[in-house]
């Protein structure tokens, strides 16, 4: 899947997980949640934790799409992004606090790494 990159609000960066944001297409046939994916930016490929759904903990109820490139703190400049989704990790949840969200993101990233390392071996 290929998407046009848009400017986000910087919430991911503020909590230690910078993301690349893009608008979901209206005809997207994908369950909301967190996914393990490979991300292509330019000529490079990265491991990614992809989120599709509302950002309840930040008061955003519309559907959003964002991906955190695992192990990357600053992103190469690009106008488009390509995702190869490997596996769904979990559904969408609202957390009692930002701290609880951060703990869950860390667990999600650990799961994503394991899934993608196994996918590379296949």
Describe the structure.
This protein has 122 residues and is an alpha+beta fold. The chain has a single domain (2-121), classed as Elongation Factor Tu (Ef-tu), domain 3. It is built from 2 helices and 6 strands. It has helices at residues 11-14, 98-121; strands spanning 2-6, 20-22, 33-41, 44-55, 60-69, 80-90. Strands 1-2-5-4-3-6 form a 6-stranded antiparallel barrel.
Question: Layout of helices and strands, plus pairs?
Answer:
Elements: E1 2-6, H1 11-14, E2 20-22, E3 33-41, E4 44-55, E5 60-69, E6 80-90, H2 98-121
Antiparallel strand pairs: 1-2, 1-6, 2-5, 3-4, 3-6, 4-5
Question: What's the quick description here?
Answer:
The chain has 122 residues and is α+β, with helices and mostly antiparallel strands. The protein is 23% helix and 41% strand.
């Amino acid at each position: 899947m290929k998407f046009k990159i848009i400017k986000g609000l910087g919430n991911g960066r503020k909590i230690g997980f910078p993301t690349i944001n893009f608008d979901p297409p209206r005809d997207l046939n994908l369950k909301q949640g967190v996914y393990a994916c490979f991300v292509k930016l330019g000529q490079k490929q990265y491991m990614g934790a992809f989120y599709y759904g509302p950002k309840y903990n930040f008061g955003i109820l519309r559907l959003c799409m964002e991906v955190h490139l695992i192990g990357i703190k600053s992103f190469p400049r690009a106008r488009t992004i390509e995702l190869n989704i490997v596996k769904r990790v979990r559904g969408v949840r609202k957390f009692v606090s930002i701290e609880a969200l951060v703990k869950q993101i860390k667990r999600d990233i650990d799961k994503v790494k394991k899934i993608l390392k196994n996918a590379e071996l296949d």
